Amino acid sequence: MKIFTYIVIAFFTIQLFVSFMNFIYIKLIFRKIYKHLQVKSNPLVSILIPARNEEKNIGHTLNSLLKQEYSNIEINVFDDQSNDRTKDIVVEFSRIDKRIRLIESQGLPPNWLGKNFACHILSNYANGEYFLFIDADVTIEKNLIQKLIGLYEKYKPGLISIFPHQKMLKLSEKITVPIIYFILLSLLPLFFVKNSKFSSLSAANGQLMFFPAKIYKEFNLHELFRNSPVEDIDIARFLKKNRIRVICLTGIREVSCRMYESLMDAINGFSKNIIKILGNNSILAILFWLITTFGFIPSLLFDSRVFLLLLVEFILIRILISITSNQNVFENLILSPIQQLVLGFIILKAINNKIFKRQIWKGRNIY
Q1: 305 in helix, strand or coil?
Q2: Are residues 271 and 156 in the same domain?
Q3: Whole-model pTM?
């Protein structure tokens, strides 16, 4: 039992160190860089939006894009066989601004997932020097595109991906959405995503992915991972394997999203990628959950000081991650026990989906 406790102490200490590194990198180092980014050119940026049954969101997204200070853009929306008003809303916006174009699906080919195919088709219609893929529920502030171009001109990456600021209004959102940030920011130093050559140190978020068109077209990236439910992570790892820099960021308020409005939508959504995020290994995923959820308990049996140490480390980890990702510190501390239990349920659901090769997402089986 003591050996297990020492393992837990070591693991929590590593998590705390990584969380602190990400706090320093995002809030202190990168914030200064981001603030002073300058754009030296005026290239065309193709904004590419896959949309399936997004009538609640697509209007807000298009509105935010039309308010951009950077005007040299085209906006292509792929309507993926929606059965709501998504298409009609896009058509209405296209009449207001000719930079907006609707592309309608002609059906999903075999061996493709819907979003991957949508992004691939969107890229075929794009004319820009840069491709900016965003989800239909993402809104961006007026100067984001300049910042993305400035980042590219400064570092020349093959991909810039941002984990948006998450709008969480309901309790169901507050006990699910922070889980992904807890995993990401306590296990992966984002500084090393940018500066290391190891493909294992990769991260990306399909909610916002910014590519130089020449890199994207060279590899046809969404076609390359046509049937992957975690194509964003696969693309990031592929680029790093090919010695192409990847930048992954969070804590940027200019990008926001309300990801899931119901508990079951959140559980179903996160169960698509939770195993991949945790090393693509079900056993490692379960071990991570057991250690971070129940790792305190053995220390109570022989040394209360060790329990106190673990508790302090856990609290500091949560505080640092919440600040780094612009989340509510107090809410995350209070709700962390429930978040941990929900994480366990998501992992078990993901394992079940993997075993039985069945997970329905937006009316389609993604396995």
Answers
A1: helix
A2: no
A3: 0.93
